[in-house]
Every structure is written in C-alpha cells, then in structure tokens.
Amino acid sequence: MRKIAVIMGSDSDFVAVSPCVEALKAFGIPVTVRILSAHRTPKAAQAFAESARSEGIGVIIAAAGKAAHLAGAIAAATTLPVIGIPIKSSTLDGLDALLSTVQMPSGIPVATVAIDGALNAAILAAQMLAIEDMEIAEKLMAQRADMGAKVLEKDRALQSKYES
Ligand code: RP5
Asked: How far apart are the C-alpha atoms of 5 and 113, rounded to whole Å?
C-alpha cells in the first residue's frame, strides 16, 4: 500500500494537524510525518517532493499557516496529488493561509480543504488511495455509516424530547 505523507511548516502546526495523522492511522494507512518549510527549509522541502513517489508515497498532505506556500511549493516539484490544509496560526485567523494555499496558478493544483480541516484532508487522501484499494474503501464506507447513525441517534433524541 502507498503511504500518505503529512508535512507541516512548523512544529507549532502539529496540534491542528494531529487529527489528520490519527485518522490515517485509524484507517490503517502507513504515514510519514515531517516538518518542512517552504521558507525556512526550501531545499529540504523540494528534495522531499522530488523523491516522494520513489519513496512509496501516494498522496502528500501539506499544512501551513500565515503566507502558506508549502503545499504549492511541494505541488510544483511532484506530480503526486497534493492536499493543502490552511492553518489558523496568525492574527488573520487562517484567512491568509487559506488564500495562499487555494489560489494556485493554472497548471499546478492543490486540493485545499477548510481552515484547520485536518480530518477532511485525511479522508480525501484515503479516498484517493481507495480508488485502487477496496480495504480502505470499506473502512471509508463504515466510517460514513457510523457518522450517519450518530446523527440519526441525535435526531431521535431531540425529537422525543420536544414531541408533544
Ligand atoms: C508557517 O508559519 C507555519 O506553517 C506556521 O503555521 C506559522 C508559524 O510558524 P512558527 O513561527 O510558529 O514556527 O510557516
């Protein structure tokens, strides 16, 4: 099975990123977790992106805050799919990171999830691997069924509380 890489611009991003790592582990997907910065360690980030495919990585999730160029810089150096997580780490509440991550020039896509959208990044990456992997696809279906069942349970509880 291909690995999913979860990279972040700073160790200060990890609190927001950890639900992504935990979800991938719960799906049984092997992960590589790294701190790589587009600005502070640009050469290491580029080298990582260039060798990712040959290292057995299938999808790269890149999280960064402020002037968040990590996902875009990684996407420029690989043809693997890149998912960007804009991190809320500044006085602009993550809007800066959202725009920096999502507004990619034509030709170099980054699939951007919501600000601090770590869980959706993990699910989207798992869905990409699940194109070819039925085991992951079944885990994704089970997770959806579980999510739906919990909502229906809350609906029943609320309904019965106020039913007259
Ligand atoms: C970004 O700057 C990082 O991704 C992080 O969100 C933000 C702040 O980094 P630190 O100054 O906390 O290391 O590059």
From this structure: 16
Is the CB of 89 within 6 Å of ligand 1? Answer: yes
DSSP state of 41: S
C-alpha–C-alpha distance, residues 90 and 20, integer Å? 21
Do residues 64 and 87 touch, judged by C-beta distance below 8 A?
yes
Angle, to 10 degrees, between the axis of helix 118-129 and the axis of helix 14-26? 30
Pocket lining: 65 vs ligand 1, CB cutoff 6 Å: yes
User: Given the CA of residue 13, which atom of ligand 1 is nearest to it?
Assistant: 6
Task: Give the global pTM.
Answer: 0.96
CB 89 within 8 A of CB 100: no
Ligand 1: does its nearest atom lie under 6 Å from the Cβ of 40?
no
Mean pLDDT in order along the chain per 10 residues (164 residues): 97 98 97 98 98 98 98 98 97 98 98 98 98 97 97 98 92
d(CA 36, CA 74): 10
- Other CB atoms within a 10 A radius of the CB of residue 163 amount to 6
C-alpha 71/C-alpha 145 separation (Å) is 31
Is the CB of residue 84 less than 8 Å from the CB of residue 102? yes
In short, whether 101's Cβ falls inside 6 Å of ligand 1 is no
